[in-house]
Amino acid sequence: MTVNLTDSQRAAVEHVEGPLLVLAGPGSGKTRVITHRISRLLQHGAKPEQILALTFTNKAAREMSERVEKLLGGLRVRVSTFHRFCSRLLRRWPERVGLKENFTILDQSDQTSIVRAILKDLNLDPSVHEPGRVLSRISRARNDMITSEQFRRQYEQRASGPLEAAVYQVFPEYERRVREQNSVDFDDLLLHVVTMLQEEEELRSVLDEQFRYILVDEYQDTNLAQYRIVQAMSQDYRNLCVTGDPDQSIYGWRGARPANITAFERDYPERQVVTLDQNFRSTARIVTCADQLISFNRRPHRGRLVTDNPEGEPVRLRVFEHGDAEANGIALEIRELVESGQRQYSDFAIFYRVNALSRLFETALSRHEIPCQIAAGYSFFERAEVRDLIAWLRLIENQSDNAALERVINRPARGIGNTSMLRLRNFADREKISIFAAAERCAQIPSLSARCCKALLGFTDLINRLHEQSAAGQVAPVLERLIAEIDYLALWREVDDEVDVDREANVYELVSAARQYDSAAEDLLIVGDSSEYTLEHPEKPSLQGFLEMATLSSEADSIDPEKGAVTLMTLHASKGLEFPCVYITGLESGLIPHERAVREGDPSSFEEERRLLFVGITRAMQKLTLTQTSERVFRGMRRTTISSPFLPEIASSLQREFSSSTVRAALPAAGDQRLEQARKRFEAAQQNRERPLLMTGAQLAFQRQQPETDVTDDTTQTHPFEIGMSVRHPRYGRGEVVEVSGGSHRATVTVQFENTGEVHTFVASRCPLQPIGG
DNA sequence: CCGACTACTGTTTTT
DNA sequence: CAGTAGTCGG
């Protein structure tokens, strides 16, 4: 069985007892090693239920469990994402962390609404403190296991920006409200489990014993909470195997700590380390290219990548005029390769940095009648109509789920508007009850009209009836009755009585997902013994189970490499996959690396961008094409692009190809006559306070040569301001920009002036000039 | 209280 | 461009 393994692969497979760290480079056969290792564990007497494999994404979980099942001839071990695993634990022992068994999981839009409501109650302007931003700051803190209390203290110790000021006020209230409605957010799933394991030693040791062999994939992506969870379960039985690659750490922005790898070596001094660095996936040229790129990181985490694979085709860089041409060119090439019989559609993948670019490729491919599957941001479960129905189901399950209630109570409209809701909320606050409970007692709220009251009672009655029905376990009948009773499809019916087919299809798809769930749920579960601490108690299908599935899975999971279609996805989503032919698109400054990563000025986020490109490159098995455009439409504005700074780093392994009509996207050299034209246009535009129609490379160069910019109180530029930039103000003279905030249309700029040392803040209005990128 | 219209603003990546 | 928050007339 282990005949085809290399020495280091075999070392990892044959290691049975004790902690093991596998440093696995891309394409080094990691999954193979893990599955063989599991089989080895079983041979050595481990029971399947003692093995727990934790992954980061559903996709990875599914793939691993399929491969294990195949190798072991149908034997199943527990493979789960962190979030799902935690959800199961909480479902089993909710009272340990003060939850009720029917708790619901909030999605991101619920979280944002809660933050928005809190900001409002605190009289903080949501246009200044953007709810999404506040939320992500809270989430980041919680990922680092910083409590609201600690956050407040930190805030008081060192003066911070206005965002922090809002966050420290919102933070505790956010936690309170989420808890109050018997719900959890994504972070809570992990955090509650950390608390549980910390405070309940008995439970901890039982779980430690139950899961004697724990495997963690993509260990570099674990955050502090995940680290703690794994730690806690690997104290008495230290058979913890983690696999990771610091060079593929691309989730730093989300609290991932690649340093957990180093921590592992510290926590388990007796650990064994195996390095897998031979690449079996890609051609030698692709491997060289990847290796070259990653070596530019301050601390590349490996020796050189090696491979015995043949050299293969050159890695190409194709330059196109604009985004449409890029998408079209790729589509055309794919079509030709398929039509000539050399390739099939499923061989191809197209990667991009931001989801916003997916459309371009989607339309180009469909123009060429090329089938494609998109692992895009808009998952099935995120569509409005599906989320509506899910919110209804959540409320049916958990009547304290205020977030769900707020979403559905007037949808379809039943005459319960803002004012009524305000009164209802007030009553609920006063009585310390949920909004649903308040609605049931609406007769006691004198300010509510009789009509409104009647509507409220109709609503609560419906929920109660459906709740009763849901006790039977089956989800589909509840959902079907709900849709019928609220005549949900009518909501999407146009005036002329035509039904929105897409939405209707989604509704039916949800119903059929529920049916499928109902029939599949029963055989999903592994039956363990029935002691108090058994995790796998046999479970009937339940509304809860269905909701968990709906909330914790995403569209990216449904990507099927065998589907006979070209795959479109973000670079992030590509991790862990491989394709014979890969296009990495938009190799432009501001996109790869992303503008924001550059603006942060933090070398580590810049390096994360480099790792992201590294991940993308190493997905390719045979044919890798990087593409770039000369101009790109962004936010409805056309902008000339600048080449990605990563390209020069791999220049020697690239073969450049320019489309016939392409002008090179680069800054013009000094003395270029285009520079002179640009100067004139720039000045004319400035005088007329107009925006130039098109920013050319020459204009960019021209602006770069103007280090000083005038600042007045009412007119400022937005984007061109960067921290450290020198500016001149008619009244205060020369100064240096110390802070910039705001978006592309409005911004505030804080400047410290040389003469007086004073600091002034300017509110920028719409800028007469185009912002320059980067 | 509802829906239609307008104005404004934003865009990383995801469990 | 496209999503949404906010305003206004019915």
Name a few traits of the molecule.
DNA-binding; disordered C terminus; 23 strands; 774 residues; eight-stranded mixed sheet; alpha/beta; 43% helix
**Number of beta strands:** 23
Molecular shape: globular
* Span between termini: 53 Å
Enumerate how many helices there are, as a single number.
Answer: 28
Strand content: 15-25%
Explain the overall architecture.
- The structure is a single chain.
- It is built from 28 helices and 23 strands.
- Helix content is 43%, strand content 15%.
- With 774 residues, the protein is α/β, with parallel strands linked by helices.
- The C terminus is likely disordered.
- The longest helix is centred in the middle third of the chain and has 21 residues.
- The chain is globular, with a radius of gyration of 28 Å.
- Strands 11, 12, 13, 14, 15, 16, 17 and 18 form an 8-stranded mixed beta sheet that branches.
- It binds a DNA duplex (15 and 10 nucleotides) through helix 4, helix 9, helix 18 and helix 24.
Layout: helices, strands, pairs:
Blueprint: H1 7-14, E1 20-24, H2 30-43, E2 51-55, H3 58-71, E3 78-81, H4 82-92, E4 104-105, H5 108-121, H6 131-143, H7 148-157, H8 162-180, E5 183-184, H9 186-199, H10 201-210, E6 213-216, H11 224-232, E7 239-244, H12 260-267, E8 272-276, E9 278-279, H13 284-294, E10 306-307, E11 315-322, H14 323-339, E12 348-352, H15 358-367, E13 372-375, H16 384-397, H17 402-408, H18 418-431, H19 435-440, H20 450-470, H21 476-485, H22 501-520, H23 543-552, E14 566-570, E15 579-584, H24 595-599, H25 603-617, E16 620-634, E17 637-640, H26 646-649, E18 654-658, H27 673-688, H28 697-704, E19 709-710, E20 726-729, E21 733-742, E22 747-753, E23 759-764
Parallel strand pairs: 1-7, 1-8, 2-3, 2-6, 4-5, 6-7, 9-10, 11-16, 11-18, 12-14, 12-15, 13-14, 15-16, 19-20
Antiparallel strand pairs: 16-17, 20-21, 21-22, 22-23
Helix pairs in contact: 1-2, 2-3, 4-9, 5-6, 5-8, 6-8, 7-8, 9-11, 13-25, 14-15, 16-17, 16-20, 16-23, 20-21, 21-22, 27-28
The chain binds a DNA duplex (15 and 10 nucleotides) through α4, α9, α18 and α24.
